[in-house]
Amino acid sequence: MEKNLNISLVGVPLDYGQSRRGVDMGPSAIRYAGAVPRLEAIGHHVTDTGDVAVPAGERIGQESDGLKNLDEVTDACTELAERVAELTKAGQFPLVFGGDHSMAIGTLAGLSEKYNNLGVIWYDAHADINTEKTSPSGNIHGMPLAVSLGMGHDRLVNIYKEGQKIKPENVVIIGARSVDPGERELIKELGIKVFTMHEIDRDGMTSVMNQAIDYLTSKNIDGLHLSLDLDGLDPLYTPGVGTPVPGGISYRESHLAMEMLQDSGLLTSAEFVEVNPILDDKNTTADVAVGLIGSLFGEKLL
Ligand SMILES: NC(=[NH2+])NCCC[C@H](N)C(=O)O
Ligand SMILES: [Mn+2]
Ligand SMILES: [Mn+2]
Asked: Could you confirm whether the keyword DNA-binding appears in this record (predicted)?
């Protein structure tokens, strides 16, 4: 990463990818927690480009083909993809705030405009690699990785442009501890690199991040995206998430992971997702997100 970046923020107040209200307020909460001044204090130039449009109204969880709110998620992801594509073309560093994780379909689609061999770090308790055939919930926030790999409903797979946006060998999942049976199969079939909590506990975060960075470097990636679901951390630290899973990554391990990514100099875009202020405790989760953003973008203790 260059020293002073031109960072463009995009908010995605999307909650149609899952079933709990409130995650649409995530972008506001992260802004309120001071993301912009935090980045400016490190020396970056930050432009807040505002939010992607998401329709208001009752969430009735309409199902089509086993997917909930397919229209709303498709529309929001399409606008997000267009905006991310434009920002990368303009040499901006896209930093996207969510919103539920279905938005990653849009982020990755937009990034595919510039990057043909993008590396992706998926920091999450979940693998988010369900399709409508394997999903236990019909919630699209459990599907973005599959969709971006070209698997799942056509309307999602063909957002922004047709087909697959990223390669399975360029994906690293970190923090997984809740994986559905169909996801497990797909992970094995595609040979996706996963560092579950087992590897984090056994080898330590330093080793895991070194392995992840070495692995991605060996793939000759032309960019690196971080998709950070706040439920990757243990709910002790980030209670404001819709699908908390105990036994997660610690606050300290997460800061270390962000610092190691900063030191790698590889990162070209990032998103922080699943912050739900209604479920939160005095904006703790957004505060943690902003702290991690500080470490990711070069804040130092001394
Ligand atoms: N982005 C998330 N928090 N995803 C949670 C997904 C949970 C579950 N695997 C599902 O597909 O419904
Ligand atoms: Mn998750
Ligand atoms: Mn997720």
From this structure: no
User: How many Å lie between the centroid of ligand 3 and the Cα of residue 302?
Assistant: 33
pLDDT at position 2 over 70: no
CA of 140, nearest ligand number? 1
Q: For ligand 1, atom 11, which residue shows the shortest CA distance?
A: 142
- Residue 120 main-chain phi, psi, to 5 deg: -135, 125
The residue length of the chain stands at 302
Q: Is the whole model's pTM more than 0.95, yes or no?
A: yes
Closest-lying ligand 1 atom to the alpha carbon of residue 144: 1
How many other C-beta atoms lie within 10 A of the C-beta of residue 90? 10
Q: How many helices (H) and strands (E) does the chain have?
A: 11, 10
| Amino acid of residue 136 | P
| Annotation marks residue 231 as catalytic | yes
The yes-or-no answer on residue 44 being catalytic is no
Tens-digit pLDDT profile for residues 161-171: 999 999 999 99
Q: Which atom of ligand 1 is nearest to the CA of 242?
A: 3
pLDDT tier for residue 58 given thresholds of 50, 70 and 90: confident
CA distances from 216 to 188, 260, 278 (A): 18, 14, 36
CA distances from 29 to 32, 44, 180, 291 (A): 5, 21, 30, 13
Asked whether 141 and 92 are in contact (CB, 8 A), the reply is: no
Name residue 41's amino acid.
A
